Task: inverse folding
């Protein structure tokens, strides 16, 4: 797409393809959300979007993803990749930044359909966007966070070389919850899987960078 080359950006790993979602991908993301993302007794997200009633959740997933794309600006962007595995979209991997041309720092977030968890796919998809950040976009640092009662997310961060960067306290479902901040320097990142990036150069201005 000449005026929105981001639709042609692809990250490919041995098991996954990451791409901006099209209409069919959005439908599949809504299906994965409705099938379940986490144990209902737990809430891994700061914004408890999975608490929505099932008759609202699917549409909200689609509206949210379209809104993220519509708000993209070079000075403040969020690249929400649909993650495809064996021909099926299984979750979302986000990479975002503010004033990236100056800060060279990215943050990440993700979710994965419940039945696709526990296979190392979460590590692989975050490794893909970190490779994009450090090798493709010349990032210097990457940050993330997770509630301290979310051991799976914290384990992914440890595997990829993040270090603790302090704690914060949030209100979650009306209760106190502690969040662990994490930071990764470029020198500490060793990508655990091969990642192929295609279609990046025409996208660079949209990330606030010169081709």
Result:
């Amino acid at each position: 797409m000449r005026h929105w080359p981001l639709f042609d950006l692809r990250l490919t790993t041995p098991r996954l393809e990451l791409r901006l979602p099209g209409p069919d991908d959005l439908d599949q993301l809504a299906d994965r959300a409705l099938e379940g993302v986490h144990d209902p007794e737990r809430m891994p997200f700061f914004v408890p979007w999975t608490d929505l009633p099932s008759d609202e959740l699917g549409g909200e997933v689609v509206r949210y993803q379209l809104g993220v794309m519509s708000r993209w600006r070079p000075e403040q962007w969020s690249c929400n990749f649909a993650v495809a595995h064996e021909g099926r979209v299984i979750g979302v991997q986000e990479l975002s930044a503010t004033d990236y041309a100056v800060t060279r720092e990215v943050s990440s977030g993700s979710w994965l359909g419940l039945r696709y968890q526990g296979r190392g796919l979460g590590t692989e998809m975050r490794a893909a966007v970190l490779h994009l950040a450090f090798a493709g976009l010349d990032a210097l640092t990457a940050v993330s966070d997770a509630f301290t009662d979310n051991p799976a997310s914290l384990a992914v961060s440890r595997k990829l070389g993040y270090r603790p960067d302090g704690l914060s306290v949030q209100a979650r479902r009306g209760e106190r919850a502690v969040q662990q901040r994490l930071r990764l320097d470029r020198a500490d990142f060793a990508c655990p899987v091969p990642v192929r990036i295609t279609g990046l150069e025409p996208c660079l201005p949209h990330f606030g960078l010169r081709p």
Remarks:
- The two ends are 17 Å apart (CA to CA).
- The domain at 5-134+193-207 is CATH 3.40.630.30 (Aminopeptidase).
- The helical segments are 23-35, 54-70, 100-103, 121-136, 151-159.
- The chain has a mean pLDDT of 97.
